[in-house]
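Re: weekly structure request thread

Next one in the queue (300 aa):
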Amino acid sequence: MKMVIEHLKFNTDTKMWPIIGYPMGHSSAAYAWNTFLVANNVNEIMWPVEIPVGGLPDFMSAVKTLGLRHFSLTMPHKAAIIPLLDEVDPDSRFFNSVNLVKIDKDGKSHGMGFDGYGNLEALRQANVNVRGMNILVLGAGSIVGVILQHLARAGAEKATVINRSYENAKTLVDKVKSSLDMKLEVLPFSKENLDKAASECDLIEQCTPQGMFGYKGDWEYLGFIDKAKPETVVLETIVNPPATTLVKKALQRGLKVIFGIDMMVGNKVEAFRFALGIEISPDQMAAAKKFMYRYFKLED
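Done, posted below.
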């Protein structure tokens, strides 16, 4: 974490803000978080901490012992943390996904998820208005439900979900469709369905782990990107690596791409309001995004 440490200020009053997950060798969230913490004079430092599956009860005991004020979460703990918290935002509980926990002065824990906020903020920063859009969503994991919710609230007209497990995708859509003012369709995973959905959509949201650092699977077929309209936007939710095989294919086609970095930085806007009551400025957003782009060598 040398690049971050060079920018940090800390003393004996500094609190640690762990980001927990397993494994954590791929994690880069602390780079963005610490940029915002320093810019806003918050005397906390985010540090990645590996907590294996089953270790959350012991971790929560450590949180109380150490008097921590905040901690963030990534896979595989976003859902497993919920039964251990005192309060959880209703939407986060419904979609079974929490990104951040704050501890108040009485020791009460409050959890909330920000993937939907980050998704929309990344689109907004890229000047993409989803109102009236037809969207292809690839995947049906924990972040997809809340992303669909926020897309619907922003006025998207239709979303087609394609996932390798049709049953999982249908279960997700059946769960959310009654509460969303948006047409929803689930299609079985096939080249033909990918091609058809891609040719008709305005936005492709890539929400699978295919191509993610440390994940063995990757896209075997990307021909559907060739079927997309020239004006189609592609949003990748994977942060590391930012240029996944799907992103590279979209860039080769000349399509507008929104990186997972943009979504990760974007969710900090609402997360800072929730955790600290602080508004992140546009200049701070731009600085954090530039820092992350340089870290991943996306620009000089």
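The radius of gyration is 19 Å. The longest helix spans residues 260-276.
Next request, please.
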